[in-house]
From TrEMBL, chains A, B, C, D:
PANTHER family referenced in this protein's UniProt entry, alphabetically: GLUTAMINASE (PTHR12544:SF29)
Top EC class of this enzyme: hydrolase
Binding site for substrate: S64, N114, E158, N165, Y189, Y240, V258
Enzyme Commission (EC) number: 3.5.1.2
Superkingdom of source: Bacteria
Organism: Lacinutrix iliipiscaria
Family: Belongs to the glutaminase family.
Pfam families: Glutaminase
Molecular function, one GO term: glutaminase activity
Subunit structure: Homotetramer.
Alphabetized SUPFAM superfamilies for the sequence: beta-lactamase/transpeptidase-like (SSF56601)
Protein name in UniProt: Glutaminase
Coiled-coil segments: none
Signal peptide: none
Length: 304, 304, 304, 304
């Protein structure tokens, strides 16, 4: 068997002193003070072994990675009805996500652009009795770890500065694609994004996406077909307008967040998480992208 | 001298029984119940004579026509500094005004598209001690008529349904082009649009735009150069994406509102207002456009 | 009466030594060698007097100014049928004229953007027996000057480098909005743009647009209504995406060309032409725009 | 082992009498007469077995499927230099591919939209001594079949009607992203698209993409890394603006053409081709998409 510990150690060694680490996101004030030198990797094989290096146990704001959890929960509730309210196509567009929403009459391109994730949040708060508590509980169960929590000051920070998300939610509302109040949907959405997890917890929580819908606690949560579909969306839409680049360079379904985290997976084989807070110009973790590219190059493990 | 009363009478006769009167705006619930058969014309010559026919004394919601008053007030306060925050070019685009705002980094195309008018509203509430009272007072003074008022239920109606304007205001805020709180700016903006005036009052209030900035009360309110510039913006941007059509068919600076009103003017000669609530597909009064085209055709009075 | 000679002399004096004269167009190789210090003004009153200063008798490439001649000829042939194949709205868009054409299914926004002028050229070659000879003859008659000619090397220069126009013509063809062969239409179009005229000739040729359709030779060529409509299009669309700015600053219908010429007019009053080859970033003559703004400011003669 | 013959037989049975088979492409006149009832499937396992059903030996126009061959040839010549002239991101946009090209200054989104494929064609004719002969030879070698040929009348048909491709090529030329003459590049491009192959030949020719770059004749033609990258582009960009949908429903890298063919593959496992000429509204074979979805559902073989 491959010496995975050696592989991730060598990747970590190669990149930990890299000077150009990208820029820590500053549009959410609470996130702007994170030390850009944080760098962790956590790898979990489906067969059970785990490997880690660096800051793999330091919690960080998972941000857009939470959209995968929310999608899986909504998909479970609504099945294919979900796709009446949003699409599964890559957005392709870096700069004008509201433009696309206008052109397409309020139907978001996919569940991972902000407008799509806001529609998912709307669906969840219509379904859940205690949306924030229930969602947190779901993530804790997936990760099999009850210590996971919202960071309230990050949620508050987004609430007072996230004007672009207010614009998107109001535009959705103007097209009739939001059932609940803008304030309620965004309160949930900002909390969802403000969950803090470390690389180990993220890897555990994504286990089910590499394992046909069966989570770490051995509960079947989604059908194999639904899992396959979520993985497809991660591959085509998981990295903003750099999704093609990630598929091209890394070749794994995955999801990034502006907190600097990335989770990626090879079905039946492994889940891997990285964290490095500095972002490239497209908003994905610069060192994380490089680490995952190195990982699939060294191990020759990719879906392609 | 031309027999203007005869001209407007014959136009009114020709159009008052027209079956296809357009559709009354229904996106603001409070406006949807207006009788589409209302139809009035009021003409005021700079020389002092007045002519009217039909429902020229029935008040209606002036809606976007108010943007001309707001622009003139802001232009007076800020002079050419105004153009640091918005432009004077036609938008050309029917369907994607937020798209343009994204493409152009939060600088609205002109003061008459909603995003531009929201920037003007933001400027006014930064300048005025009692924004709503002071603005209403300004309009009353221009019209020389203290009976003019806000329709509070129209303002409230827009406040609870104007999600597209919330989207625009939040997008402006995300680009740093809004100083005040979204809620405060839109409260002012929805009130501004909810002023009720009749054709006579509108004609009186627009007198200064045909008279080098001197209003009916003989007060010089803007410089000749500023008035010329506002007239130019009315001509190029006053009719949404039908501005070219209005210039082409009518050939006068003017402004329409979704309440069904239109005001147009020939500098040094006259101001004319029409009201007919049914709108054409571009959102301008269908019968009003036809009446004004007939007026300039019959009188051969246009700027071209 | 105003001392017009003094007015244009003082404008010429103020601007002739201006250091920042804009950049001479270099995308048409043949035009790139013109001396940026050329600067002429020619003013013709409807009453008959003429005033000139500077290089008002040096011929230059009229380029897009020719679109007004072509439009007037096509309008005369086809009347309002013309508007089945193109619109009269400002394009508003600096950068993506083909985008608009795609969004609007091959119907150009107006006759002065390139795609619209190409449709007009297509109409003319379907109508004319000897398109190039007949068109040149028409311009000579309007100007009452048989010395006007095509510059063949400029036409050839555009033919070998005008890829964007080939793109537009082929896109029109793909939408079925071009009757003739792309090569034939563009050969005519490039010749039309390659006519050389001086300020005096341009002013003479535009006389009919300020005189209800009656040209210098006292022939009624278009109806008053058609002339009014062409003037409206000049005002709203005559200056690319700076049309609003020109209306705002100058307040006259007019048309510019990348050869550095501008013609503008006040109906019933005057026609004025300027030539200064350096362009501002929007593609309009920098000094010419300033000269015309100064002219309307000093004389207070504008349509607004 | 799975009974693959049974699987494809049952899929063929289920779909061969389906009434709604989509519309045969009519924009290329030569293709419009194909019988919509043609339907073939050919499956080749990397292990060597082959399975087929229906019209798997009837040649058809491969059209856009040829773009994968062209990309692989150009990638081999230029390596990663290729990506200086085009990108690898999904285009996301159904209707305005020239718009995107304008917005992105002449850099096509990916090698599978027409503008990107035209850039690839330009690269190939700069590299090849006898472009058309050499390219055909390359395809024959990949398929190990010298009977493959261009259909000259299809190539001629596109040449006289492919105005949109002329528009794209001229736009690329205007941005300096085309080295050769538009006519030469498109002559090559229209021939490339006019190659005729049957399902068996296509499956054979794609063998190397499922086999780390080693073709049927056991020649290593591209590196494993290059093959992985081409597969990634097929997955994210291979089905126009339905790429997300194909990834979601089918979950295999693949490429479709308007001739009704689709090829898809699972690395290390198999290549499968389908042919059914009727297209869905997005331009992909309607029955082919359904057949491939059924295949991955029944066999549970997908990359996700």
């Amino acid at each position: 068997m491959m010496d995975f510990q050696h592989v991730i150690n060598s990747i970590h060694d190669d990149l930990k002193h890299e000077v150009n680490r990208g820029l820590v996101a500053n549009y959410i004030p609470e996130l702007s003070h994170i030390d850009a030198n944080n760098f962790g990797i956590y790898l979990k094989l489906i067969s059970g072994e785990n490997f880690s290096v660096g800051h793999s146990n330091t919690p960080f704001s998972i941000q857009s990675i939470s959209k995968v959890f929310a999608l899986s929960m909504a998909f479970n509730f609504k099945g294919d009805q979900l796709w009446q309210r949003l699409d599964v196509e890559p957005s392709g567009d870096p700069f004008n996500h509201l433009s696309l929403l206008e052109l397409e009459n309020g139907i978001p391109r996919n569940p991972f652009i902000n407008s799509g994730a806001i529609v998912i949040a709307d669906i969840l708060i219509s379904q859940l009795d205690n949306p924030k508590a229930d969602f947190l509980n779901y993530v804790r169960e997936l990760a099999n770890d009850n210590s996971i929590n919202y960071n309230e000051s990050v949620a508050t920070s987004e609430k007072t500065t996230g004007f672009n998300n207010y614009a998107a939610a109001n535009l959705l509302k103007s097209y009739g694609n939001l059932e609940n109040k803008v304030e309620d949907v965004l309160d949930f959405y900002f909390h969802q994004c403000a969950i803090e997890m470390n690389c180990e917890q993220l890897t555990s929580a994504f286990f089910m996406f590499a394992n046909h819908g069966v989570c770490l606690q051995n509960i079947k949560r989604l059908s194999s077909s639904q899992i396959k579909r979520i993985n497809a969306i991660m591959l085509t839409c998981g990295f903003y307008d750099e999704a093609g680049e990630f598929a091209f360079e890394v070749g794994l379904p995955g999801k990034s967040g502006v907190g600097g985290g990335i989770v990626a997976l090879l079905p039946n084989q492994f889940v891997i998480s990285t964290w490095s807070p500095g972002l490239n110009p497209k908003g994905n973790s610069k060192i994380g992208m490089q680490a995952l590219e190195a990982f699939t190059t060294k191990t020759k493990l990719s879906i392609f």
